[in-house]
Amino acid sequence: TEWQSAPHAGVWMSIVLDAGQAFPQLPLVVGVACARAIDGILGSTEPLVFVKWPNDLLVMDQKVGGILCESGPAGVIIGIGINVAVPSGGFRSDVAGLATVLESVAGKSIIRSQLAGSMLSETLSRVDGSIPLDTTWRELERRDALIGRSVDTDEHGRGVARGIDRAGALVLELPVGDMRTVVSGSVRLAATSDRG
Question: What's the angle, vertex CA 104, arms to CA 144 and CA 89, rounded to 5?
Fold first, then answer.
């Protein structure tokens, strides 16, 4: 995946954690934190931003941002990218129908520094345990963009997403009824992605 990051059109930030603060569900936890922060900035009391396993943020099935976590011996770097405004000249043609921006959703200007501060605060509160993992997991269940939808996976092919397990894996029901967990690769909404 290639990032498109035009000047003044988004928030692109990194958070550095100690190596001991890494855990497998971190991208999903950060996704929930960012979704809550964005909804707060937008003034929404109901979820507008959803988490698409494993690391995308969606509004009305269009990508508004993403999270990337990389671990090394010195620590963990959390990369967050959020589309705030339409880039000068618009999105590239290959992503134009797939992406959206917060200002279009909100119908108003977004103060990027306020958004960054809110995402940082929400993320750190979850990583340091101030907000328990169980609370974040319940929030993830409400914000799961794929649950009940037909998806195509690299790992197991097509099936219906049945949620995310506590280890952070996507639970997939195959057409024959068998359940599988998806732990890596990409997941795309199937052409017929009605909830099932």
Answer: 115
- For residues 33-45, average pLDDT: 96
Q: For 126-181, how does the pLDDT look when each residue is reduced to its tens digit (9 = 90+)?
A: 999 999 999 999 999 999 999 999 999 999 999 999 999 999 999 999 999 999 99
Nearest CA to 138 among 113, 164, 177, 116? Answer: 164
Instruction: Provide the token pair at 126.
Output: 């979850």
Sign of CA dihedral 137, 140, 146, 148: positive
Q: What is the pTM of this model?
A: 0.91
Alpha-carbon 111 to chain mean position: 20
Could you list the beta-strand ranges (E) of the chain: 10-17, 50-52, 56-59, 62-72, 75-83, 150-153, 157-164, 170-173, 179-182, 187-189
Q: Residue 97 region, left (φ>0) first, then alpha (ψ -120 to 50), else beta? A: alpha
Residue 17 CB neighbour total at 10 angstroms: 18
Compute how many other C-beta atoms are within 10 angstroms of the C-beta atom of residue 10.
24
Over the stretch 171-183, which tens digit does the pLDDT of each residue have?
999 999 999 999 9
- Using DSSP bridges, classify how beta strands 187-189 and 150-153 pair: parallel, antiparallel or unpaired: antiparallel
* Distance in angstroms (rounded) separating the CA atoms of residues 130 and 14: 21
